[in-house]
Structure formats: structure tokens, C-alpha cells
Design a protein that fits this description.
With about 240 residues, the chain is an all-alpha fold. The protein contains 6 helices and 2 strands. It has helices at about 50-115, 120-130, 150-175, 180-195, 210-215, 225-230, and strands at about 40, 40-45. Strands 1-2 form a two-stranded antiparallel ribbon. A hairpin with a 1-residue loop joins strand 1 (about 40) and strand 2. Helix 1 (about 50-115) packs parallel to helix 4 (about 180-195). It is elongated. The termini are far apart. One of its GO terms (cellular component) is membrane.
């Protein structure tokens, strides 16, 4: 019997596990353009028709788009939590300011009552100091506020992260089949996902000038931001 030998430079082919009646899976660890009989992830995911292969490529593109969407969603959700923290800190700061105003008001009233009939120069000096500082005595104390996400918010962040991790791992496994069509589908999905779900928007505040000068000036007007894309953008995940 003639013994079969393989060339040392010939790529090793893993035919996978297929049924005895059906064709074997085409799997290669080198760059390939397999379409029919190509298998991915599991032997049950075997391409039998060109339509099934096209559906596979479209599904892979949608997986990558979904991954980009989840990335943007996670970023937007974290920013929403931070905005909520800032709102709560502003309320706490306003409450502290009102308490200082009320305490300083009562202090100035008691001081003016106790010094009635004494030197009028001291009374005027005390009143001017209170008025110059906005009705309350300013202090240099700094209050540090530390917020933590609630258990529900942290659970939502963890679920989004887990789904992102799983999708990324599946996309990596699909890319490791070195199928040219699959890799092109991944790149197209990344392009579409970045274009739709991660639209760069920057907000600026422009101060200064009178209303008449703003209308007549050739700078930013109500129409210029619409033409230049500086208006409020509504991205797919915001």
C-alpha cells in the first residue's frame, strides 16, 4: 500500500464534525474565502446555501453594530448618572448657602440690636461688611461630596458590560476563522456602528455682545449652527 504523506508547507485542515450523510465542514486556520460548507462556532452552524451565507454576513454586521451601540449606551448612561450627581450636589450647595444666609441674617440683627446707642461708626462698618459679602459671611471651608451609584444603577451597568463582553468575544471567535467575507463584514459593521452610534457632538457657550450686534455680526447666528452641524444632535443611543 502506498503511504500518504503531507507536504511540510501544506496548511493543516480541520474538517470538523459533520454527519456521515452530509458534507464535512470547511475550516482553515489560514486566510480563506470559503462560502458553501463553511462552519462557524459549532458544527450546526454550517453554511449550505449562498443565501444562508449572505444572512450570516449580515448577522455578523448587525452584531458589530449592536456592540458599538452598547458602547455608546454605556457611556451615555454613565454621563447621565454623573449629571444626576451634579444636580444633587447643586441642591446641597444651595441648601448650605441658604442656611448661611439665614444664620448671618440673624447674627447681623442681634449685633445691630446690641450695639444700638454705641459708636455709630462701628454699626456702619458692620453693615457695610455684611452688604459687601452678599448678605452672609463667606468662609473658606470646602465640603467634599462623594456619591455612589445605586444598586439598580450598578446592576444596569454590569448587565451592559456583560453583554458587551459576550458580543466582543463572539466577534473575536468569528474573526479567528480567517474567512475573508466574515472579516470584511466585521469591518463594515464597525464602520456603520461608529457612524450611527458615536456621532461626535461638542457644546460651546458663547458670551458677550449686545443683541443687535449678535444679529448683525457675521459670526454664529441661528442659521449658521444648522448649516455647520453645531446644533443639538440626537444620536441613536442618547
Amino acid at each position: 500500500m502506498a503511504q500518504q504523506t503531507s507536504h511540510p508547507l501544506m496548511p493543516r485542515m480541520d474538517m470538523g464534525h459533520a454527519d456521515m450523510d452530509g458534507p464535512a465542514c470547511k475550516i482553515s486556520m489560514l486566510w480563506n474565502w470559503y462560502t458553501i460548507d463553511a462552519c462557524f462556532i459549532h458544527s450546526s452552524w454550517q453554511i449550505t446555501t449562498r443565501g444562508a451565507f449572505a444572512a450570516t454576513c449580515i448577522g455578523i454586521m448587525l452584531m458589530v453594530v449592536l456592540l458599538e451601540f452598547l458602547r455608546c449606551l454605556a457611556k451615555e448612561y454613565d454621563e447621565w448618572i454623573v449629571r444626576d450627581f451634579r444636580r444633587r450636589s447643586a441642591l446641597i450647595k444651595d441648601q448650605q448657602r441658604r442656611l448661611r444666609q439665614s444664620s448671618s441674617g440673624s447674627t447681623s440683627t442681634s449685633t445691630s440690636t446690641s450695639t444700638r446707642g454705641s459708636c455709630p461708626g462701628k454699626i456702619a462698618a458692620t453693615a457695610s461688611v455684611v452688604e459687601s459679602k452678599g448678605g452672609y459671611i463667606s468662609t473658606s471651608k470646602t465640603t467634599t461630596l462623594k456619591f455612589r451609584a445605586s444598586p439598580l444603577q450598578q446592576l444596569i451597568r454590569a448587565v451592559i458590560h456583560a453583554v458587551m463582553f459576550g458580543l466582543g468575544y463572539l466577534i473575536m471567535l468569528l474573526a479567528m476563522y480567517y474567512n475573508g467575507y466574515v472579516i470584511i463584514s466585521i469591518l463594515i459593521g464597525a464602520l456603520i456602528g461608529k457612524f450611527l452610534c458615536d456621532w461626535l457632538t461638542v457644546q460651546f457657550e458663547i458670551h458677550g455682545g449686545d443683541e443687535e450686534e449678535d444679529v448683525d455680526a457675521p459670526g454664529f447666528t441661528d442659521e449658521v449652527p444648522r448649516q455647520q452641524g453645531v446644533e443639538e444632535a440626537t444620536v441613536c443611543c442618547g
